[in-house]
Specification:
With 333 residues, the chain is mainly beta. It is built from two helices and 27 strands. The strands form seven sheets. Strands 3-25-2-1-24 form a five-stranded mixed sheet, covered by helices on one side. Strands 4-5-6-7 form a four-stranded antiparallel sheet, with no helix packed on it. Strands 8-9-10-11 form a four-stranded antiparallel sheet, with no helix packed on it. The longest helix is centred in the C-terminal third of the chain and has 12 residues. The chain starts with a helix and ends with a helix.
Length: 333
Amino acid sequence: MQRNKCLLVCAFLLILSVNRHVALANAPDNESYVFLTTWGNDIGQQGSNRAISIYKDRVYVFDQMSLTIIVYDLNGRPLFHFGEIGLGPGQFYDSYGLVVDDHGFIYVASTSGIPRIQKFTPDGQFLSEWVMSDYGEDPSPMGIAVDGVEWVYVADSRNHRILKLTTAGSFVKAWGVMGDGPGEFNEPWGVAVDQHGAVYVTDYLNHRIQKFTSTGQYLMEWGQKGSGPEQFNMPTGIAVDAQGNVYVADLNNKRIQKFTSEGKFVTEWGDGGDSSIFDLSPIGVAVDDDGMLAHPAQASLFRQRLFHHGCRIHEGAVTELADCLHDTVGKLL
């Protein structure tokens, strides 16, 4: 019972970096993050991973080299993959946006070729597509998010706006214009929704985060260009956990920053404190609130890196994984 209690409060954080994806475990702010292992598979091994999502016990990654969605379990084992190069149904040309809704349906945003959103069944079967030119000229869908009410939010980067759609692709509303004032954007990239329906947007070239209601009403913002806490250099991916903590991929600062829902800086990791985590710049970030962290990862040859904080280190090496998890469970209870 105690172990299950710990699993509920441990968030599993996945971070997508150019040419590899990185897994971290979230913890109290005074605990460090320790590298454990790498895992993955041979599909797209040399590719550039641009979009990532996590749903229950599965991790979804878009691999730019193989132009497929690769689906893993939380032990790093590949389960299946789908997609191929092309502009037809179920095919991909690129993608920077990937999300899975509460029913397991998969949404993929593509910018090049035919800017569109494609929707798939949980096992990767094509269902429908929404051509973004139906919603305006010169579209550029980047980040995508789905909330608990099942509204879909899309960052239309080139049009400097956020689109709100139904899960069937019907237009609801749009907000934003180019600029640097409240509610304005300069190429919005990532979008995330918290459990209360608040919408968070990474304002890429304004180097800030903006927060809105589900109807697009401006609430607040934080950030400016720089490399200090609460500063950004082209923020890209964004995710929110069940407690409302906000995680931002700070692309050119090669780090992830963590904030409260009100924009208060909590911690950071990456090039500012542990350059071994990101050899290259992180692009995407996803959070799992189910606590599957306690399942040991299996190592193999790829770019997935698993971290856990709170584990003892002896002469630069982590203790046995089982002992590490046991120690961490004890700390969190």
